[in-house]
Amino acid sequence: MTDSFSPRKRSWIMRRVASKDTSPEILVRSLIHKLGYRFRLHRNDLPGCPDIVFPSKKKIIFVHGCFWHGHSCSRGARIPKTNTEYWKRKIDKNIARDRQNLETLKSMGWECLVVWECELKDREKLSGSISTFLEASNNL
Fold it and tell me: What pLDDT score was predicted for residue 20?
């Protein structure tokens, strides 16, 4: 299969992919706000520049896109048909970087939850998972 976009068009599309304030992230923030929690955003002084930070609880929530972060769901497991090696390497590096950031944060005393894009389909279940995570005492 050939790419239907010119290199210039493909480049323009890729530049428009946001790393902050994505639709999934905004939806998760809205759910958390409705649960009554307040938080900080994108703390760049912490490894991985976490999406949502609860400083007083020492808890962090990352909102990961399934494709970009290599989730095991059907959306995350697919690899583009063009430039396959590039995408495989890129996603593998993202997975390794995410794993390292989580380990570093844990060693710093932070507890982390990763919310996957595919989990947004069941908002009631997601709200419950987030509440449970935020209410549990730190086990570190």
Answer: 66
pLDDT of 1 over the 50 cut: no
**For residues 77 and 71, is the Cβ–Cβ distance under 8 A?**
yes
Q: CA-to-CA distance for 20 and 52, rounded, in angstroms?
A: 11
One-letter identity of residue 5: F
Cα distance between residue 72 and residue 91, in whole Å? 12
- pTM score, whole prediction: 0.84
The residue extents of the domains of the chain are 17-135
- What DSSP element (H or E) covers 13? helix 7-15
What would the two tokens of residue 30 be? 């809205």
Q: Which CATH class is domain 17-135?
A: alpha beta
Helix and strand totals (H; E) in the chain:
5, 4
Q: How far is CA 123 from the centre of its chain?
A: 16
Q: What angle do CA 67, 63, 100 make, to 5 degrees?
A: 80
Q: In what order do the strands lie in the sheet with 111-116?
A: 40-41, 52-54, 59-64, 111-116
Torsion angles phi and psi, residue 61, rounded to 5: -120, 125
